[in-house]
Automatic annotation (TrEMBL):
Belongs to the ExbB/TolQ family. The lineage of its organism: Bacteria, Pseudomonadati, Bdellovibrionota, Bdellovibrionia, Bdellovibrionales. Signal peptide: none annotated. It comes from Micavibrio aeruginosavorus. This is Protein TolQ. The chain crosses the membrane at residues 36-57, 151-173, 193-218. It is found in: Cell membrane.
Length: 255
């Protein structure tokens, strides 16, 4: 090997080192050196990820608070305290879905018995249906409110990876175009562009995975809470039915 070959290799090595140094392969460096379209894709995914985490923390706090309040209210409900007194007490406090459901049922019940307890089975059945309907409408309205943000989590979970993949494909296309123009296929030339492109997919996965997991967890949690509200409605309706049956028995004894 002559001195000319050694000098040529030394120059090539120096150029490769300079090329590597010119490309910052850190996350910030990859973002700053990426194509404008790839940057836009990553910014959208970063925003989606931040918004998803905001929803995740809010839903987690909300479900924990609602279940805690529901436990306390159910303890009061089954403590033997008269329902009229319980209604007057809780309607002045903080309103959560379970208390609103109870209040809707009690309000309809009090309106129905304002002139006295119904004496015929038809009127009694109508009153029970109105109470149950009022509670069901309240449950549906409250669940719609609680489910806000779930569609966003589902959308991010299902589309973020594809958005990131779009950024990757676009970045790789630009990398191949740059290779064609430079007519240099060395790894030093190819690697930075490919890394920038793949970084978009990585950001997409970072946004999608927590969103999918959170969506599944919160869907289960909200379904259980909805079942809890439905069960409470059934219990409340059963109590009213027993009250009406007791009234029938007293009426028959008097007759």
């Amino acid at each position: 090997m002559n001195d000319t070959d050694l000098t040529s290799r030394a120059v090539d090595a120096a150029e490769m080192a300079g090329s590597v140094a010119a490309h910052d392969l850190s996350m910030i460096g990859l973002f700053m050196q990426a194509d404008l379209v790839v940057k836009a894709v990553m910014l959208v995914l970063i925003f989606a990820s931040v918004w998803s985490w905001a929803i995740i923390f809010e839903k987690r706090r909300t479900l924990k608070t609602l279940n805690s309040r529901a436990n306390k209210f159910e303890d009061s409900f089954w403590s033997g305290e008269p329902l009229d007194k319980l209604y007057q007490r809780v309607k002045k406090g903080k309103q959560d879905p379970l208390i609103k459901t109870f209040a809707a049922g009690m309000e309809e019940w009090q309106n129905g018995v304002a002139g006295g307890l119904p004496s015929t089975e038809t009127v009694q059945a109508s009153l029970k249906q109105r109470v149950e309907r009022a509670m069901a409408v309240t449950i549906n309205r409250e669940m719609v409110t609680l489910e806000r943000g779930m569609t966003f989590l589902a959308s991010i979970g299902s589309t973020a990876t594809f958005i990131g993949l779009f950024g990757t494909v676009w970045g790789i296309m630009n990398s191949f175009s740059a290779i064609a123009h430079s007519q240099n296929t060395s790894l030093v030339v190819v690697a930075p562009g490919i890394a920038e492109a793949l970084f978009a997919t990585a950001v997409g996965l970072v946004a999608a995975i927590p969103a999918v997991l959170a969506y599944n967890i919160f869907t289960t949690g909200l379904a259980r809470y909805a079942d809890r509200l439905d069960a409470f409605t059934s219990d409340f309706s059963a109590i009213l039915s027993r009250h009406l049956d007791a009234q029938d028995i007293r009426s028959k004894k008097v007759a």
